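We give the chain.
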Amino acid sequence: MHAVGYHPNVHMKRARTRSWGWFMAGSFGATLLASAPAHAGNEAAAQALFDEAKKLVGEKRYAEACPKFAESNRLDRGAGTLIHLADCYEKNGQVASAWATFTDAASAAQALGRKDWEDLARKRATTLEPKLSRIAVKVPSPTPGLEITRDGEKVAEPSWGMSLPVDPGTHTLEARAPGHESFKTTVSLTKPGETKEVVVPKLADLPASAQQTSSPVKAETNDTPIGSDTHAGGGQRTAGLVVGGVGIVGLAVGTITGLMATSKNKDSKDQCPNAGPCASREGVDANESAKSLATVSTVGFIAGGLLAAGGAVLYLTAPSGSSPKTGRLSVTPSVSKGSAGLSLGGTF
């Protein structure tokens, strides 16, 4: 099965393709040094894969060996690895893959200056060429937007009509275009050198109902302006609930701290019942705590009351969605020593 000049028992190293012109530019030196550790890791993994693949080939487990050769070459490209990979493909019956890889290996060997490997790869490729199976995809009447795939891979338009090499076996071809029914067929290639044609017909239009079903659904949007009564009313009512809720919390804080201030004031009077300076430290501390808590309670009541009232006004004056309303509301708090108030104004 091997072409003249290839001996699988002869050791072939994973010679790598390098462009030594890199070293002519000194500015690349630092880059090469920095990438050395990562490249060394790739080389080690590539060598391990290469060795395992050779072992599998020796056991005639070609379907397992070929992917390992391919991954070894991906990690650290080498002409020797490519030749082993191509040979593996050929043994596994993947004639087109073997032919393409031998051709690639010849170019890699030429770049290395390995004339012997280059000649070997070219001879193997030439030997395989008459055995290539091919598929020609012909499109006499292309449908607008037509896309053709073979085994899931796109067949580019410049390739239409050409007999392209493929591995033996069954291949699935599919043609699609927007708004049209798809075309799908399978082609089986079992004989060496066999060529088959696939003619893609002009795709039929989809029925109107099917086109509507397959068309993207337009998201429904609310065209009501944000400044309209519906949005403004809902937003204002929400704001009123939030402001009122915060006000209620403020009133609760005022109530709790007020009760605490009353309790501390009682403790202070129990410790210091007489007017004038108090000799009890605990009584003085209780009196100071009572004053602080009283201040917090006052602030809580004033702020809570204002916010609760403002929230109620916002909620009650929010425009409804049934009839347009325009209005303006102003809320002005006033606080002075010993008193607090809320001024409301505006048009409704």
About this structure: The chain has three domains: 20-130, 133-208, 229-271+283-347.
